Amino acid sequence: MHVAVDAQDLILDDRGIGRYVRSLLSILLRRDDARFTLLVREPFPFRRRAPFARALGLSSVRVANRIPRDADVVWHP
């Protein structure tokens, strides 16, 4: 399963839904049975990889500025 996640406010929102989504994603992104793409609204999404990876406690994450065609579901937390 490929999940695209609206991550625009994921780093900046350090309370409420932001904290919840970071905690959930830090676990889900380590699973082998699903792929995740973090969606941001900016022209060069690759610049956001490192900050997202740090915020989620990972070495790397997939970031895009459009919903991938092969995404099975889009999550807007």
List keywords for this structure.
77 residues
Q: Can you walk me through this structure?
A:
With 77 residues, the protein is of the alpha/beta class. The protein has 2 helices and 4 strands. It has helices at 17-28, 49-56, and strands at residues 2-6, 35-39, 63-64, 73-75. A 4-stranded parallel beta sheet has the order 3-2-1-4, with no helix packed on it. Helix 1 links the parallel strand 1 and strand 2 (35-39). The chain is globular, with a radius of gyration of 11 Å. It starts with a strand and ends with a strand. The model has no long low-confidence stretch (mean pLDDT 91).
Helical residue percent?
A: 25-40%
- Order of secondary-structure elements: EHEHEE
What is the general shape? globular
* Biggest sheet architecture: 4 strands, parallel
The Rg value, from CA coordinates, equals 11 Å
Number of helices: 2
Uncertain segments are none
Question: N-to-C terminal Cα separation, in Å?
Answer: 18 Å
Number of strands: 4
Given the helix and strand composition, which structural class is it?
A: alpha/beta
Mean pLDDT, rounded to whole units?
91
Strand order of the largest sheet: 3-2-1-4
What is the beta-strand fraction? 15-25%
